[in-house]
């Protein structure tokens, strides 16, 4: 297949973007599936819950530490075959877990998945800008990574329900089959794209400070989000929710993220600065309200829906702005965003765990809001990283 013309519009290359969206849905479903099945997996191998939980935390650690190195190592490889290889490795990861005879084999399968995840999203974030003109990078990334929200809303709950009904091995086995189908779908629809030239890398050298600002703001924002979101179930139960209600509320929170994603997709290319100001301001206000209303279930649920709805628009903002700095290749820019987000996830969960016994559920949202506010301050100070208009700093994304 010949390489795509970089002047193509979003509409004319929608097939490739939807292929990336399906693959990103698969990726996040693979990452998060064990959360709802940890007790069953642990029971099978007589392993305690805290040890089984490492199957999830291992992912975030591997992505945070390996996203950039793996992207650098694979920089000279053709883009489409490399991305297809990551999807194939999702097939392998889920299949290994499905038939694992020991807990060590389960961990090995998850390790394959973690290595894959560290590279996949860097490739996905870097691939979408190569399919469209630079002026449409934000919308293209919003479409390509929309599968993340779909994975949280549909993929994870449905896979978890399947596992609880028929056994956790069935759930991973079905996901392996779906991953194989995704591989065929992506191979069919996704066009090939060119790699960067040395000239692009040389021209980009002067914009690294802008990329640092994007990555720093991204990390702070994700720390803020996951300082509270990691413990949202505890917050809901503390406000009087029954255990049966927690799942549907989390499902609604995931679905509401599609609203924020749609807003960012429509405004990000025209006004990155205004988009991040509106989105993060809504997150800060809603999280603060969640803290004030942490003992009243209905106001807490409403605040959670608004806050998570707004946060759904956060990832494409940082992805697009990182690519548009022109500081490095789209993949490496995506790798830094990917790594800093996972660093924020891990750090936020740790900060929340340390502070929750001290300041309680009423104080934790204030800490969360403070970190998001720091992310917003960095973004507002970095005028070139988050420009008022969508005019790109460089020429093209790839």
What Rg is obtained from the alpha carbons, in whole angstroms? 20 Å
Structural class by secondary-structure content: mainly alpha
Task: Give the overall form.
Answer: globular
CATH topology of the largest domain: Growth Hormone, Chain: A
Count every helix, treating DSSP H or I runs of 4 or more residues as helices. 17
CATH 2nd-level architecture of the largest domain: Up-down Bundle
* Percentage of residues in helical conformation: over 70%
Global mean pLDDT: 86
The top level CATH class name of the largest domain: Mainly Alpha
Beta-strand residue percentage: under 5%
Number of strands: 0
CATH superfamily annotation of the largest domain: MFS general substrate transporter like domains
Largest sheet data:
none
Provide the low-confidence segments as ranges. 197-206, 392-398
Count of domain modules? 2
| Strand and helix order | HHHHHHHHHHHHHHHHH
How far is the first residue's CA from the last residue's CA? 18 Å
């Amino acid at each position: 297949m010949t390489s795509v013309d970089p002047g193509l519009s979003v509409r004319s290359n929608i097939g490739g973007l939807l292929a990336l969206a399906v693959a990103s849905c698969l990726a996040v479903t693979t990452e998060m599936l064990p959360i709802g099945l940890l007790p069953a997996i642990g029971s099978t191998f007589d392993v305690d819950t805290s040890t089984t939980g490492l199957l999830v935390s291992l992912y975030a650690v591997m992505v945070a530490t390996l996203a950039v190195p793996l992207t650098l190592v694979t920089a000279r490889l053709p883009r489409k075959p490399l991305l297809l290889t990551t999807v194939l490795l999702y097939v392998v990861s889920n299949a290994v877990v499905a038939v694992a005879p020991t807990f060590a084999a389960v961990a090995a399968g998850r390790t394959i998945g973690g290595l894959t995840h560290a590279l996949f999203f860097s490739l996905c974030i870097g691939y979408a800008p190569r399919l469209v003109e630079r002026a449409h990078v934000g919308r293209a990334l919003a479409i390509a990574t929309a599968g993340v929200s779909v994975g949280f809303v549909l993929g994870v709950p449905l896979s978890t329900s399947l596992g609880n009904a028929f056994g956790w091995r069935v759930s991973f086995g079905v996901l392996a089959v779906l991953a194989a189908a995704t591989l065929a779908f992506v191979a069919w629809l996704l066009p090939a794209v060119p790699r960067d030239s040395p000239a692009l890398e040389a021209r980009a050298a002067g914009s690294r400070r802008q990329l640092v600002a994007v990555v720093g703001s991204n990390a702070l924002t994700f720390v803020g989000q996951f300082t509270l979101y990691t413990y949202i179930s505890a917050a809901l139960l503390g406000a009087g929710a029954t255990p049966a209600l927690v799942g549907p509320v989390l499902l609604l929170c995931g679905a509401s993220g599609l609203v924020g994603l749609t807003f960012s997709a429509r405004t990000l290319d025209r006004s990155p600065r205004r988009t991040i100001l509106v989105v993060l301001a809504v997150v800060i206000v809603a999280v603060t309200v969640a803290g004030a209303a942490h003992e009243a279930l209905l106001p807490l649920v409403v605040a959670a829906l608004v806050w998570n709805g707004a946060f759904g628009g956060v990832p494409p903002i940082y992805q697009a702005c990182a690519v548009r700095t022109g500081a490095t290749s789209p993949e490496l820019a995506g790798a830094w965003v990917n790594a800093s987000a996972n660093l924020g996830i891990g750090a936020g969960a740790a900060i929340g765990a340390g502070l929750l016994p001290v300041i309680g559920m009423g104080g934790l949202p204030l800490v969360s809001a403070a970190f998001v506010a720091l992310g917003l301050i960095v973004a507002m100070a970095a005028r070139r990283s988050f420009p008022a208009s969508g005019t790109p700093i460089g020429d093209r994304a790839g």
